[in-house]
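Table S2 (continued). Query chain:
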Amino acid sequence: MIKQILVLSMALLAAPLFAAEDAAKAVEAAERGWAEGITKNDFALLDKVLANDLTYTHSNLAVDTKESYIGNLKSGKSKYTSVDYSKLTVQVLSKDAAITICRAKVTTLANGKPNPMDMSLLHVYKKNGKQWQMVAHQSARLP
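Corresponding output:
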């Protein structure tokens, strides 16, 4: 009986660790979904991983909403060709809040020419139902 209680206790103590690990994997999938969505112009994927109340602050201090950000991609005003992560860290803050801290080489097209930038990215995610969605983006160019 004591052995069963110990096993049950261990399982109950480990459950939050597994939940956090599952959440971290789901947040990373949403993060990579953003990168795939912007480089492949997959607007259905972006609609899924970007929250309706998104605040997207670019490294040049321009600020977009979800609607204006996706609109700029659709019109060709913004064009991303690659997002190559060198570091991607997920921190689960609660059952419905997480952040990603990333370093990436982000390549855009500027006047039809590739414009690679080393970037630091901070993304804030919230869980909306079963889907993790980005609610805030802040980026900075690295020297």
